[in-house]
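About this split. The held-out portion is used to measure sequence recovery: a designer receives only the structure tokens and must propose an amino acid at every position. Recovery is the fraction of positions where the proposal matches the reference. Here is one held-out target exactly as it appears in the evaluation file.
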């Protein structure tokens, strides 16, 4: 008999009932150090007082009105995002998947309005993940994502990650955009080198096409900049954001320049819940904390500390771990044993990690993790690795 919750996840037999900062408390009382942060969502940890206050205050005032009316909290968050980024305008969604849908529509509508309706192809890359909607799985193109769900939405050109020659050759008169994650998350914590991101920007400018960046997982302070593309000194035309922007409350957004968004006029897109007062009140609180340069400097400092300790962990367990990669507090451990074995061993030692492609475990702790908690995290990973390498 099928369970009442559709069984599309192979869930661990853990039930967390409370969270405190970098910790999650299981129903039986065990305290787990959370290096997953709900897959890079709980950017400020669990039950952060500023977020709790923002949500509680708003919940006591007004929950929902719909986008048929002005929403002051939405305007306030849009203003913050515009002030801190390349963008001129923002549309709010509930998730990264919805942000992908709008980004695709926006790029295609841009060229339609310019009298080039055949210019609708979007170039994407192997290892990418853009959500599980019709557009998202078609954009990623992997068999794992698409098998059984055809016919797929057309208009995506899939290239191997890092194949520069293929990329240059793939741009044609039907290309409207290149879509890429500055750091692949699901793909195994694979950063796109700054030089490559700059090269993509140059290619887009040369051919008059749009650059779409998916910063759903790597954005909002995760890499030590407010958004990961800032390290390369470039700016996209359209950017997808979610996960960390809500600090645990469902919230996403598409940020765009005025030019790129020019085709999205009244009636071309909508969302019943997107940008509701609850989500945007929390988003404002998140931005007020994470956009602070001093906060981002701490993310970078803690990233250096954690990476140094992870190198020591790899040296201590060369039969289990191969290398560390990533940026900021978006780190990955390439494994020599099945990555799911390490995730499971971590449960036994009360530390949470997240598997990814390329036999990598993701380490995505709250950006508020402390030095002491980093030390505890390494100790627990050390114990987990030792349990796997023991004769």
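Reference sequence for scoring:
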């Amino acid at each position: 008999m099928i369970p009442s919750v559709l069984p599309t996840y192979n869930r661990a037999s853990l039930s967390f009932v409370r969270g405190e900062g970098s910790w999650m408390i299981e129903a039986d009382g065990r305290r787990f150090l959370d290096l997953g942060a709900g897959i890079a969502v709980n950017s400020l940890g669990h039950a952060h007082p500023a977020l709790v206050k923002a949500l509680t205050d708003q919940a006591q005032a007004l929950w929902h009105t719909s986008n048929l009316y002005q929403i002051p909290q939405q305007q306030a968050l849009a203003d913050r995002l515009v002030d801190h980024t390349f963008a001129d305008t923002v549309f709010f969604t509930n998730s990264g998947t919805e942000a992908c849908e709008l980004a695709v529509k926006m790029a295609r509508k841009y060229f339609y309005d310019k009298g080039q309706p055949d210019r609708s192809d979007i170039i994407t890359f192997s290892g990418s993940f853009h959500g599980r909607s019709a557009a998202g799985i078609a954009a990623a193109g992997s068999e794992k994502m698409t098998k059984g769900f055809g016919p797929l939405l057309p208009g995506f050109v899939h290239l191997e990650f890092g194949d520069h020659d293929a990329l240059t050759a793939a741009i044609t008169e039907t290309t409207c955009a290149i879509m890429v994650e500055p750091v692949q998350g699901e793909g195994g914590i694979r950063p796109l080198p700054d030089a490559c991101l700059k090269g993509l920007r140059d290619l887009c400018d040369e051919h008059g096409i749009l650059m779409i960046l998916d910063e759903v997982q790597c954005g909002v302070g995760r890499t030590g900049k407010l958004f990961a593309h800032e390290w390369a000194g470039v700016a996209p035309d359209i950017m997808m954001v979610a996960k960390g922007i809500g600090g645990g409350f469902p919230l996403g957004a598409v940020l765009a320049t005025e030019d790129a968004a020019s085709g999205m006029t009244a009636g071309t897109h909508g969302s019943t819940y997107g940008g509701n007062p609850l989500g945007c009140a929390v988003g404002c609180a998140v931005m007020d904390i994470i956009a602070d340069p001093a906060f981002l400097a701490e993310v970078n400092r803690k990233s250096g500390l954690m990476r140094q300790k992870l190198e020591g962990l790899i040296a201590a367990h060369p039969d289990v771990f191969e290398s560390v990669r990533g940026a900021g507090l978006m780190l990955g451990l390439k494994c020599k044993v099945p990555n799911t074995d390490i995730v499971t061993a971590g449960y036994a030692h009360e530390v949470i990690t997240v598997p990814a492609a390329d036999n990598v475990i993701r380490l995505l702790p709250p950006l508020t993790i402390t030095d002491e908690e980093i030390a505890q995290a390494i100790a627990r990973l050390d114990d987990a690795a030792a349990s796997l390498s023991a004769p």
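Annotator remark: The radius of gyration is 21 Å.
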